[in-house]
Amino acid sequence: MGSQYQKITGSIINQLSAIVGQENIITDEAAMEDYSRDEMPLLKPYSPQAVVKPADNREIAEVMKLANREKVPVTPRGGGTGLSGGCIPIYGGIVLSLERMNRILEIDEENFVAVTEAGVTLTDLYSHLEEHGLYYPVYPGELAAFIGGTIATNAGGMNAVKYGVTKQNVLGLEVVLPNGDIIKTGGKFVKCATGYDLTQLITGSEGTLAIITQAILKLTTRPPKREVLFAPFTSLQDAIDAVPEILRLPMVPIGLEFMDKGIIDIIEKYLERDMPYHQYEAFLMVTMEGEDEDKILDYFAKVEEICKRHGAVEAMVPGSEHAKRRLFEAREKFYHALHKFAPMEIMDVVVPRSEIAKFLRRVKEISDGYQMTVVPYGHAGDGNVHIHPICVNMDLKEWLNRLPQLMRDVYVTGVSLGGTISGEHGIGFDKKEFLRLGIDDRLLGVMKAIKRTFDPNNILNPGKIFDLDS
Ligand SMILES: Cc1cc2nc3c(=O)[nH]c(=O)nc-3n(C[C@H](O)[C@H](O)[C@H](O)COP(=O)(O)OP(=O)(O)OC[C@H]3O[C@@H](n4cnc5c(N)ncnc54)[C@H](O)[C@@H]3O)c2cc1C
What we know:
The protein has helices at 10-20, 29-32, 57-70, 122-131, 147-152, 160-163, 198-202, 236-248, 261-271, 293-309, 321-332, 334-341, 356-369, 396-416, 435-438, 441-454; strands at 25-26, 50-52, 74-77, 94-97, 104-108, 113-117, 170-176, 182-186, 211-218, 225-233, 255-260, 282-290, 347-350, 373-379, 384-390. It has 470 residues and is an alpha+beta fold. α1 (10-20) packs antiparallel against α3.
């Protein structure tokens, strides 16, 4: 498929320089290294021919017109923290980095919205909003992600039980289409019945339909108190069984995470410190926020009662900020700890919450069948289960041989339980071969028709989510 694209010539570089300025183009191989990968495990790097860093939507529009005319592929890139290879330029061409478009344009305190450029990092947005006593509740574990990237991937994360994922928190977009047209969708309002909802279509489209340049984000105020309950269990099954009952309580937690001993052992090695109750098999971590600490503690008393009825050995609410912080820090470092521990893959299957226990049981049977180790943890509150096959006690070549079939079996199992293959990390490049397990031919046909409408020359992030010609 790559043969349909043109290589970038000296003349194209000159034209790009005229658009963004020579100092905002990289063509040096070594300097482009950082743009040839993301955080996807097991990824071999793909180098672009040029990295282009525009300053605004008009420059992006000009770059797209040029690329469309010359049939040069363009891969949008945010913070490069994606886990599916979405921002890597598999057909070379241009990597279009949003890093210079990092201005927070407006905090509208009356309408509870922020208007930002796509290259603002989550870290910067959170700290800026804090000064205004406001909060953008989408919280994926990696705060170096850009707003544009989180929208392109429909990022979820650890606050989704209460606040939803990115789709529920984006009100409008400004985007540049592959032909260079600039369009605006949505606005500073929460209702909209005016034609097709392109905000929702572009959110989660992984940079294949349009380049996001600005976003209108829905804000909230952050309740002042945030507490966490940590409960150890003697079996993962018991821990998961407690989840539906916890979610039936009238108060909604921000997050409800599960983890097993496998990941606790790994995080202890990584952080070089012990986790509480590390001798037990499984854990639930329930995070609740509110105005009033007593109300949170009342809620936790009920959660504790449910957990203990389901076999929890204990239920701990850390008394100090320090102890609380250490728990959150450990949870946020799981991915990095696994990365350091062994070669690994990541799957982020989502199933109906009621099926998590069955899904995990089957995953264990599958991994035992392949004599491979998998480490599960994830967002029990929204059914999003992270499954990490890790290469331990096995030759790497043999592990890599077995890996695709194990992944296929896990995906088929998730789908057979009413779930789908990705809840938040996206399909990107990494999961493309498995997409057909999650959607049927007719749905794929509609998706391809949408892609062709937006991008008839297939120049915007080609080869991601699906191949148009397969
Ligand atoms: C340690 C760790 C923990 C993580 N935890 C979570 C988690 O809990 N939940 C979760 O959802 N994700 C998680 N992620 C994944 C990642 O942080 C998210 O996918 C994030 O949304 C990616 O943002 P980014 O700016 O880094 O995008 P990139 O990686 O740069 O790009 C991701 C995709 O978006 C496209 N894109 C980027 N910017 C634009 C734009 N302006 N316009 C159009 N397309 C664009 C790219 O082409 C690519 O397809 C985690 C990652 C790490 C490393």
